[in-house]
């Protein structure tokens, strides 16, 4: 089954308003006429509304970098799904390795965030991945299965059309190291196998699984040639219009 590629840019904690608007305008130009792939950006919360205005006549998807599980309430410092939608976003990153590693977000909290996003009509991008220590201990597949099963607990098969899985080996994020295409493909194929066990093969075959971890213009084509890699979650290279534009316009032999 053909899955529409998804190229996503995570701006992380970069960009005041003027920078974000310039980046969005440049991205808009690169995406004109594209209809065979989806493009998504996740700006900081403070600029989502303005970026939304710039991209309003495009098909570029806007996402929050995190999301609360409640629509409103006494949750100081959180952003609700309702607020994200009001600002122009239709998706959210959930369980990014920096949230897990730096801010202690557990699998159960990731699951709450994911279910909250789905409840309020957002596409949920579930991030999973192993640390260098876990890879060197040959625990990669165990970690991926645990995070996937826990993150998708109590999620129904019908809801999976609104879920994207992002495999991001923690040891390759912002380090300049990238999993080889074979390593990435092995992880993606395993993730799809677990999804088939959790739901059914037809559902697993429809879910997009994207790779994140020092994705660059120089490695995107090889990554996208792999049968189970359906896109990329891009960090640093997404902050440069030309670099991200080249990634968006990847060439694939698959």
TrEMBL record:
Q: What is this protein called?
A: Triosephosphate isomerase
Alphabetical list of PANTHER family matching this protein: TRIOSEPHOSPHATE ISOMERASE
Q: Pathway membership of this protein? A: Carbohydrate biosynthesis; gluconeogenesis; Carbohydrate degradation; glycolysis; D-glyceraldehyde 3-phosphate from glycerone phosphate: step 1/1
Query: Catalytic center at which residues?
Result: 96 (electrophile), 168 (proton acceptor)
List all membrane-crossing ranges. Answer: none
Q: Which family does it belong to?
A: Belongs to the triosephosphate isomerase family.
What is the source species?
Desulfofustis limnaeus
> What PROSITE patterns does UniProt report for this protein, alphabetically?
TIM_1, TIM_2
* Reaction catalysed by this enzyme: D-glyceraldehyde 3-phosphate = dihydroxyacetone phosphate
Q: Tell me the gene name.
A: tpi
Q: How does it assemble?
A: Homodimer.
The residues that the entry says bind substrate are 10-12, 174, 214, 235-236
What lineage is this protein's organism placed in?
A: Bacteria, Pseudomonadati, Thermodesulfobacteriota, Desulfobulbia, Desulfobulbales
Class in the EC hierarchy, top level = isomerase
Per UniProt, subcellular location reads as:
Cytoplasm
Which residues are the signal sequence here?
A: none
Q: Tell me, what does this protein do in biology?
A: Involved in the gluconeogenesis. Catalyzes stereospecifically the conversion of dihydroxyacetone phosphate (DHAP) to D-glyceraldehyde-3-phosphate (G3P).
Which domain of life does the UniProt lineage start with? Bacteria
Q: Which GO terms describe its molecular function?
A: isomerase activity
User: One matching Pfam family, short form?
Assistant: TIM
Q: Please give the InterPro entries that the UniProt record associates with this protein.
A: Aldolase_TIM, TIM_sf, TrioseP_Isoase_bac/euk, Triosephosphate_isomerase, Triosephosphate_isomerase_AS
SUPFAM superfamilies the UniProt entry points to = Triosephosphate isomerase (TIM)
